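quick one before i forget lol
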Amino acid sequence: MSSRVVEAPDPVATGHTGLVVLDGIGLGVADVVRLADGSARPVPGTDAMKRVTESWDAARQIAATGRVYGRSTGVGANRNQDVPTESAAEHGLRLLRSHAGAIGEELPARQVRAMLAVRANQLLAGGAGLRPSVVTALCEALESGAYPSVNEFGSVGTGDIAALAQVGLALAGEHSWRGAGAPEPQSLDNNDALAFISSNALTLGQSALALHELRGLIEATQVVGALSLLAVDGSHEAYAAPVHAARPHRGSAEVARRMRELIGAEDRPTPPLGRIQDPYGFRCLPQIHGPAHDAGDALEEVLTIEINAAAENPLISPEDMAAYHHGGFYQAQLALALDHFRLALTQVARLSTSRLSTLNEPAFTRLRPFLADQEPASSGVMILEYAAGAALGDLRAFSAPASLGHAVLSRCVEEQAS
């Protein structure tokens, strides 16, 4: 079964416009956005819930007969310390309480809801080995609109452990919820705690929302670019189909096709009567917007894999009756994809400032400098260049590769936490 969206039986009564079936296999970025926005209702798939139940049963049997990280032992540098049998039930809550140390401002509801959607779907992949009622509770919260209070700082590439610990405590009835309709408190123990927080669901949810919004901005920027080209009577040749067939990068070819559509150009346009060619802001738009499209597609591919991944450590395999200890949670692919997308976006923004400068030039607009009125020495829109330059400086700083950073944590046991 794959994730699918169908019409809700009664949108007026439910407040939702459709259903999203969570199955741990086919949830997409668009589905996460719909669930975060509250425009769709989550339904756990039948086969997926069966996987969760089988994983839960297997995990308890495995933990009862051998050492399993986080269930019968401590975590991090405490991995070699066994949990006394008489303390096993309380161990899970102690772990959640000690790890719920996120700090900073509370995250917006939309971001928290995106995290809940991602985590519910990941759990339905069937590798976590925690009680099925946790999945049901997450879906109930998504449907009602209730969400836990989650603070912004506390995540590293190893996992969104602090944020998810806050969610875990909220599920256990020990942490605050925002909004009405919070699910009934869950009885969580040593078999649930690490299994729940071993995820990057917050980062994945935030990334899905950001990708969705930024793609919209890229599309809007292209429309503005097309209008600007028409305003300066620019050449259509830069978007000619033969140009992009000769250098067939998928994103650039699609941007050129869309530009031809927006400006009403032929596939093989006639040469311009005036300028032989335009500044880079117009002439190189496909070559700069195209990589941003490609980077967005690459990021979506990584996100889709991770949103549907059973990346918990340890991975519970009911088929093998084994708990596999591993590093599958490590988010190098996601970090690199996000870095790639940010760098590509900064290129798009920089090209926008180039076009803005061109629009202030009488040689291109046949108007007064800075599009000013007829009053002598009028500045017109001069200051827009300064504002855009300041914003571009911030974007340039934000696009510094996050994947180059790392931290040494938990007494050097996690010696390259990204």
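fyi The first helix runs from residue 11 to 14.
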